[in-house]
Amino acid sequence: MKKHALFLIISTFLFSCEKKEVIPIVEPIDPTKTVNILQDGASFETIFEIAIPLQSVNASPPSIDIADFTVEKNNNFNIVYSISQPSQQSVLTGFTRFSKNLITQEVIPLPQYANDLKGLSPAQIKLDGLGLGMTKFKPYSNFFNYAVIRNGSFNFKNSISFQGDQKATIASFNPIGLADLAYYYPVSNTGAASKNNAFGYITLGTPSPSYLTSVCNPYDISFYNNSPFPIYACLFEPRVFNGQGTSKSFFIRSDSVIVNELNIDTKQQTFLTGYKWDNVIPSVSNGFETLRHYSEDGSILCILFFNRSLNKYYSFSYNFTTKILTKGLEDTRLDYSAEGSDLDTDEFGNIYYSGYADNGANKIAVSIYKKSIDGSTSLVGTNNFLKFGTIVQLKHLFGKVYIAVNGKITGTSSYQMTVVRQK
Questions:
Q1: pTM passes above 0.90
Q2: In 102-167, at which residue ranges do the beta strands (DSSP E only) sit?
């Protein structure tokens, strides 16, 4: 959702009382000075902001964008953002990783063995015939991973290389799907599961945030569908070491959600629990999206499924302790939202999202709404809270909504990234 406003740059003029030529003196403008993006009285507060002057040598504008951010239980705020500047030959992009404590405002050094991302360049990756996939923090931690993906290249070999704070390479002659990040480990899920089967790869190793062992071992699993109802998505949840028991795998079919228990040693999957949708999910011919959201301790997982063909959402949550699967939302549209709305869930399946302000009446302003699992829609915080910028990421953490906003400061060459938090 976009919200635009002009920021006035005030020039100071000094005038003499004598009758002589008046020469205006313009105060120099600090290109790194940030502007307040919140309306007066907004029930949000700024927790991070940075302004950077950027130039371009062609018609393509530069930009500052978010890779990911998260907050830890100890109030440490972690963010990775990128800067892009078009040059004559390509787009020059660099990543910055930054942490600070939200109570003391102290800058936090990176953990031991953490990747500083200085060598990560999407432009170079693209030139090498690769693509940059997942760029995510492990929830509630200063553990960051990204994925470099090669699809259908030399000898039809596909591969995913997980890099960052945890490293693993997965090679396959099959389409390997989408990079993802489970609570502990990187994951490769089938991008377009078929009617008959689904497959993917998980990585197993030493759980972070110990950072003592960064290399993980790929582990492939498959699911064979003995039903006329097609599989739309599969997600894997690696939680154990090799030889240490079972994990979980989730499959979203057009008629149901299935949770299997996965034995890491034998690769056998056993049906654990399931839920049948009230209505069969129609075709996903225009594709789908999935999103994970964990409780703070990782004991509850919500999976959100979005059918782009119908613009409808489905959510369910699974408790790893009680082994109970619960439906959240089904066949649900988001009131007052537009295509491209930023959103997140809580662990129970409620959705928090950006939408048009004033209950949809104001199409040039933005508000945050909550779609509850009982079907009701409510305002989060104050209405029309932004003066300026575009929301580029929204998260629900520790019971509050956090929002990353970017934009160009009017009248300058500076681009600003701001993260605000619900009061």
A1: no
A2: 131-137, 144-150, 158-164
